[in-house]
Amino acid sequence: MKREEVLVTKEELNIQNEYAKKVKEYYDTQGKTPKALVETFGCQQNENDSERICGMLETMGFGFTENEDEADFILYNTCAVREGAEMRVLGNIGALKKIKEKRPELIVGICGCMMQQESMSKRIKSKFKHVSVVFGTHSLYSFPEIMYKAVCENERVISRIESEGRLCEDIPVKRKPGPSAWVSIMYGCNNFCSYCIVPYVRGRERSRDPEAVIAEIESLAKEGVKEITLLGQNVNSYGKDLERDIDFADLLLMADKVEGIQRIRFVTSHPKDMTDKLIATLPKVTKLCRQIHLPFQAGSNRILKEMNRGYTKERYLELAEKIRAVMPDASFTTDIIVGFPGETYEDFLETVDVIEKVRFDSVFSFIYSKRGGTPAAKMENQVPEEIKHKHFDILLDVQNRISREINETYSDRIEEIMVEGISKNNPDAMCGRTDSGKIVNFPKDDTLSVGDFIKVKITKISTWSLAGERV
Length: 471
Ligand code: SAH
Ligand code: SF4
Ligand code: F3S
Known about the structure:
Strand 13, helix 13 and strand 14 form a beta-alpha-beta unit. This protein has 14 helices and 19 strands. The protein has 4 domains: 157 residues, Methylthiotransferase, N-terminal domain (Rossmann fold), CATH 3.40.50.12160; 113 residues, Transcription Regulator spoIIAA, CATH 3.30.750.210; 91 residues, Transcription Regulator spoIIAA; 57 residues, CATH 2.40.50.140. The longest helix has 24 residues. The N and C termini lie far apart (55 Å). It is α/β, with parallel strands linked by helices. 40% of the residues are buried. Bound molecules: S-adenosyl-L-homocysteine, iron/sulfur cluster and FE3-S4 cluster (F3S). FE3-S4 cluster binds next to helix 3 and helix 7.
């Protein structure tokens, strides 16, 4: 698609703004402030989409609630990456039927990656009659129009646009207040890993213009944001679709210059796009956190080929070494799939071998889940559930040992952390994060605010987190 066709035009956006106004007027004439509850499943990209949805809802006059019984509109933003994620959403959506029966004026909606799949959108249409707003990822920018039809015209709206994906700037973003923010730099994916649904539900790679990205970061810095995470399914292919000479390394250096931002992170990068230029640039990005997330998925070369990943085990190990050479104290994390079709015990041992060689700080491991419409779903040699689980458990044991060993090296170290708030598991403790991404719990201190940078001495370690005292 040409760039002009990718970008949503000002005229198209104005039409949506008009719809948003009409929804607001509708509620104003009723003398009420409607309340929305938006729940997000899936990855940070979906979280960021939900922030846009909330931004649009706000222009439509909505306030927000966490309480289902108080909500006028409940929207689930869904993920399709594994069957488990889909089942959870379907269970939750089913449970809303009772609330809808009690309060027929409630609008129930479901959107996101699951709804971009035709079969799923049809299933909701025929089996979940209490859901009256359904839209896929490509319909996001037309959300005001969808709401206008649902609210003002009392219609059941099912919107599933077939598209390679558009790019829409200037949608308002309503973020949770705090020192950290997600900034999407690109959308979609061109990689078509054979197990993965994402390219089918998110469209082709499209990069935002660097000026738009930097302007967003600058405005976040003005609002007091200290840490940004650059987001995309494959951030290190940033810029390939732009008709100008810019890549991810260039964008990192531009982001590094924004005053007020103190930490920069990015997810996710793909090993096949980890160029020498990018690796050489990493240490020059002064605000870049010492943390690299680089999914390798599997250790066996045969499986990597079947997965269509575009690199070998040896190449991955070489990349990890190159990155460590320029960022010696960086923490490493990765994604792994266990039980891809045809994966034998010997193949699986190759995965364990990569874990032992790279020594990741932590690993996001997933049991392979068959996704309709992907090439791997049609492969005949699917691995039995019990074997997948057995291998998965072995992997967890190996990784937990390594995570703990790495965390032990933090003992007695003095680390700078950014304060994130009250600890999740202990109301008397606060927590923050090292720039390597480790969570540190420490005794509550009323003089501190969220976003403060402090030094702590690590006094206690566990597999998942650290504890320390302010020094
Ligand atoms: N674009 C990112 C993340 C994609 S989804 C990347 O390429 O790294 C996040 C993770 O979900 C993937 O890295 C992969 O490990 C996992 N995943 C994707 N499809 C899956 C499937 N069908 N079954 C199990 N895990 C899957
Ligand atoms: Fe899925 Fe592969 Fe794209 Fe990641 S790179 S989103 S795993 S297809
Ligand atoms: Fe899930 Fe969609 Fe993200 S499928 S992982 S929410 S891109």
